[in-house]
Each structure stands twice: as structure tokens, then as C-alpha cells.
Specification:
Blueprint (H helix, E strand, L loop, with lengths): L19 H14 L4 E7 L5 E6 L5 E5 L13 H10 L23 E5 L5 H15 L8 E7 L4 E2 L7 E2 L9 H16 L12 E5 L2 E7 L5 E9 L8 H11 L4 E5 L2 E9 L5 H26 L16
Parallel strand pairs: 5-7
Antiparallel strand pairs: 1-2, 1-5, 2-3, 3-4, 5-6, 8-9, 9-10, 10-12, 11-12
Length: about 325
């Protein structure tokens, strides 16, 4: 349970700007209006320090704040800040970005996190957010913050009632070629592989674990597709399609199909407007799901993975 912070009457030793209580009220109202599968990220301008909110409908709301796994050395949290986060009600990260993936650690996170059960006490969420920014991260006033909001499909949401500036994004590409270059630059940044490039089929190949993921733009439509042949030389025993349908029902963002003697995974994400963070997040999610699913399905139906020996991930998350 999070500890309530009084932000209306700050003491002399830890004064807060008078702008924080009105911001807390605005944030409370915005969070209460978020619908299932909608997300809000409030970040410090010019920094990777953030608090993010994931609305989960009847399952409540998950809130996360940046751990040192995603912070450069000048911004790393010190021991006192970490201890204060825990004292405020945040849970410790359960692993690093490689360990705490949705596949391997569905209830954990590589960030500090809190699960608020339904019905969500949105006022308490806002109080925790203000305490995190103002007292722990030492952000002087709300004007130092910016936001972005979106749905799971990647469509952006406008929340002017927050009173914050929209996070700076890459300019919208003026042409398909501009979009292709933005995509390539995003994948290079996400993977750290500087020599990534399109092949003759206009695909970009990225290895993760025992799987190979291909990324491409879908013709003239504003979508990016991730796809992977996760198993081949699979014999159809009559149960594969039923099993994949069951997986698809529980894994809405990645779709699995059986064609010929192979099992494929596919996922699309919107690229209009092109938001690099959304594309990178979708890639990391797709690769983490695919890399675990190929071994699982191989154990059930046989066949061969693309690579026998897993490779270390180059994804930066």
C-alpha cells in the first residue's frame, strides 16, 4: 500500500512548489478517464526519468517509474533515492530488462512498479506520482514535465487538461522513403547495431535468442509489420491450429499462424504518426514473446527453430 503524502502543507525542510497540488488534481481526473489498454507517460523534459500508467480495466492500473537500468550514469538513482522510493510504496524491480520480460516475469518489471487494484484510488496514484517527481527525483515544478499518451494499437491520445507540453517526437515523414529511414534509424538505436539495413526485399532482419524477426513497412499503408518463422519442418498432427487459436486468444498483440510446415508469428503497429518509442516498444515485446514461444511450441509439436543456439539480445528496450 502506498503512503499518502500531504502536498497541501509542505514543511520548511522540504518545500514544494504551489503548482504541485493543482497538478495532482488534474492528474487524478485524467487517470480516472483512461480506458482499458490506454497508456500515459509523464516524463522530465530532456531526461529518461518518467512515471507511466497502464489502464487495465477490471484489473486496475499498473504504474511504473524508471529504474537505473534505463538511466545514464549522470541520472542514476542513489541509494537514498532508491530507499525513499521503496518507503513511498514502490516495489523493487524484479530483474533486469533481459529477465523481467512479459514472457518470463508477467507480474514483475525491470522498473519500480505498483499495482493498484480496481476500483483504483486515482487520488493516491496522483499523490505517489507527485511525491516521486517533487521529493525523490527533485523536479522543482510541474512545468518541468511533459507527457505522451496512446492506445495499445499505437494511436496517440491528446490530454490537454493535464496542462503539460506534449513530448517532442520525430517529425512526421513526408514520404514513404522518409518513413523507411525513420524506421531504420529507430531499429539501429533500439538494437545498438549500426550496420542494420534493408535487404533486397525491403526487410530488416534482427536476431533475438533462437528466433529471427523481420521488420518491414506494409506498402503504402502507415503500418510496421514484425514477423518471424519461429518453427519449420513441423508435421501437422491435427492439433496445431487449435493450439495456436488458443494462444492467439490470450496474446492479442501477436498472432500465430500455421502455413505449410511452418509456424509464423506476426504483429503490426501503427506508424502514423511515427513515434519511435512506440515502434521500439512493439519490437521488444514481439521479440520477447517469439523467443519464448518457439521453444514452447517445439516441445509440443517438434520442428526446428531458426537458430539452434540462442544469441544474446542486442535490444536496448
Amino acid at each position: 500500500m502506498t503512503k499518502k503524502l500531504s502536498i497541501d502543507k509542505p514543511n520548511a525542510a522540504n518545500r514544494l512548489s504551489v503548482a504541485w497540488p493543482p497538478f495532482a488534481d488534474k492528474l487524478t481526473g485524467v487517470l480516472a478517464r483512461l480506458e482499458e489498454d490506454q497508456y500515459l507517460i509523464v516524463s522530465v523534459k530532456g531526461s529518461n526519468r518518467f512515471v507511466q500508467f497502464a489502464a487495465q480495466g477490471s484489473f486496475g492500473m499498473r504504474v511504473e517509474t524508471t529504474s537505473n537500468s534505463y538511466l545514464p550514469k549522470p541520472e542514476q538513482l542513489n541509494k537514498r533515492q532508491v530507499a525513499t522510493l521503496i518507503d513511498a510504496g514502490w516495489q523493487d524491480p524484479t530483474g533486469d530488462p533481459e529477465e523481467s520480460t512479459p514472457e518470463n516475469d508477467p507480474d514483475g518489471s525491470p522498473n519500480f512498479f505498483v499495482e493498484f487494484a480496481s476500483p483504483v484510488a486515482f487520488g493516491a496514484v496522483a499523490q505517489l506520482t507527485v511525491r516521486t517527481f517533487a521529493q525523490i527525483l527533485r523536479v522543482p515544478y510541474p512545468n518541468s514535465l511533459q507527457y505522451e499518451a496512446f492506445e495499445s494499437e499505437g494511436r496517440s491520445l491528446a490530454l490537454p487538461e493535464l496542462g503539460l507540453k506534449l513530448a517532442q517526437r520525430a517529425p512526421n515523414p513526408d514520404s514513404q522513403e522518409d518513413l523507411a529511414q525513420h524506421l531504420l534509424a529507430t531499429l539501429k538505436e533500439c538494437t545498438g547495431v549500426s550496420d542494420l539495413d534493408y535487404d533486397e526485399d525491403r526487410d530488416i532482419g534482427i536476431r533475438h535468442g533462437s528466433a529471427l524477426t523481420w521488420v518491414r513497412l506494409l506498402g503504402d499503408s502507415p503500418f510496421v509489420r514484425f514477423y518471424s518463422r519461429i518453427l519449420h519442418d513441423v508435421e501437422d498432427n491435427g492439433a496445431i491450429v487449435s493450439r495456436l487459436n488458443d494462444i492467439n486468444a490470450r496474446q492479442p498483440m501477436v498472432h500465430f499462424v500455421f502455413r505449410g510446415d511452418a509456424i509464423f508469428a506476426l504483429a503490426d503497429t501503427c506508424a502514423a504518426p511515427f513515434v519511435a518509442a512506440h515502434v521500439a516498444h512493439a519490437l521488444v515485446h514481439f521479440c520477447s514473446i517469439v523467443d519464448g514461444m518457439d521453444r514452447l511450441l517445439q516441445a509440443e509439436f517438434g520442428g526446428e527453430t531458426t537458430f539452434v543456439m540462442p544469441a544474446a539480445s542486442s535490444l536496448r528496450h
